[in-house]
């Protein structure tokens, strides 16, 4: 065993640390395609470090790539890259033509931006794509492709093992993913006790109304329904908005603050049934605190791990799921509460007792969440 | 609802922008504008050597000795620069044998090395088993095998692999291998003494080995709660190579734990290109209240997003730490730490797991980690403190 091979052995050993071995992002290219009938517009972002290795950019050998050096290699870059992307539509191969070269910055350095167009002669429902850029010199390279067509956006990741893929221009794909997130949305509202209790606390009084300091049953179901619709719509609008903003990372709030505020919202909604202070403005209350509940929903989505592919679809699916789950709860509540709204037992036991119960539970949550303690199993 | 969908599509497009998939291309006005620095300082001799080897391979791709030399050079560069592109170059040199039914023994060992760096531990172990059947005296295969098993927390098997090195490798190498495994499985103080003794008696086999051994000794000292001992080993290792990415990360963690974040900032200031080091830089900046913390936090957010886009999951340990300490999201941190624990079980992996469980007040979630500590008898001052915190919370 010579010294030289042993130091390679040491290298192998230390490579194990995730930090040491993969501290940079491996090589990726970002390819955006926009299809208009049989014509495709493309932009292709390829790392300068990769291009330097493939075609040689650093002419003066000073360890830097200047705009002048890059520009001089424009034809060479196109001649290297474009043949490594083969598209066909309706069985006919698309011909590519380079249009221009720019630069862009990504998280791991500067990229050449290659503008090109493709003429496919025929139109089709699907595009067959074979991607082989850099696979010969770096099999860990990935091509991240984003295809936009008349019906939406599709994304795909190309690797040596998946170098040929078929991308669909119709909107039928992704239903499975949509359904998964829809199911998760329903599931989450049904198991999210704080959200349900918030809604229930706001809905308990809709089948009765306040008259001279007392509760009296509403005269017909339309009145109840209108009130329900106002509250539910406002709650939905508000939490859909913040759910999207938070899940996309555009707005972020500390989860302790959000969870505490959600508990507070449940408490206030319950107290309002005992000592009314909202005076028919439940809808505004539902909107305001709905914004906070949206942040709560978002934490679930983040826990699930949002997909990179079809993110908007996933978010939409989750939102629809939450709405459907919520509608089922509301419908169930109305069906049970409306017929029994008359006897005093509704007002005393269900409305009064229910609100006291909800207020108590939410107070405990509030203390737990605000002071980071734990008393209850949920 | 349709409007909501449009809104979501618009927001989706925004996210692509944020992660750099669809940023804003521009046309520089000046030909002299520097777009990219390919290296700092003069070209590494290894890079030049690798280039000439690859030129030879372009002529004769199935020349095994040249391919092996190129692959080893590339792996060496990957280690030195922590840039995974070099691993891709190594793989490409081995392409003619990579998918063969019976790759040559040396190709199997290198393939295992490349695979484990993408956390494909099981295929790597299979490769090493096959290599060792072909060449039972291949020290490098045994050492890599020991390393993979150690990261997976399979200490009994790792110990056997290290034992095989006693008759195949210089003593300091076999001793470091064994002492590391022993120190993780209930014999911390004994293994430190053993390794210090052998280093004193034999001296170093080469610089690479000395850096490795000193880093190992420093980490053992940290686990034993011996700050001054760790400090002197870290400093000795840094004198040998002030740029070693793993060593810098390990030393920075030590400094952060010692409340010496102020020393981390200058140490890592120019090393932000490596994600793991940028994470520690941001943590140090947060601790010292530096003004550009948010810039680095945003950069890390973008980098994690970019690596998700390509489907990578090798960063979960770092991402969990990022989620907990810089985003304040203990739930997400716990999810990431649990997933990470299914793959790798070094002290640092257990640490992010327990820290996230403590922050999330979720002792039950930490049960697998606590059971692992119990079974392996892993000794570690920080882990012991976290374990006590979880017990108290019960």
For the structure shown, list the relevant keywords:
heterodimer; A: 378 residues; alpha+beta; four-stranded antiparallel sheet; 13 strands; disordered N terminus; B: 394 residues; mainly alpha; 22 helices; 73% helix; 1% strand
Head-to-tail CA distance between termini of chain A: 61 Å
- Estimated radius of gyration of chain B: 23 Å
Q: Provide the succession of SSEs of chain A.
A: HHEEHEHHEEEEEEEEHHEEHHHHH
**Largest beta sheet of chain A: what is the strand line-up?**
6-7-2-1-9-10
Description:
Chain A is α+β, with helices and mostly antiparallel strands and 378 residues long. Chain A has twelve helices and 13 strands. With 394 residues, chain B is mostly helical. In chain B, α13 packs antiparallel against α14. The radius of gyration of chain B is 23 Å and the shape is globular. The termini of chain B are far apart. Chains A and B meet through α1, α2, β1, α3 and β3 of A and α1, β1, α3, α4 and α6 of B. β3 of chain A pairs antiparallel with β1 of chain B, so a sheet runs across the interface.
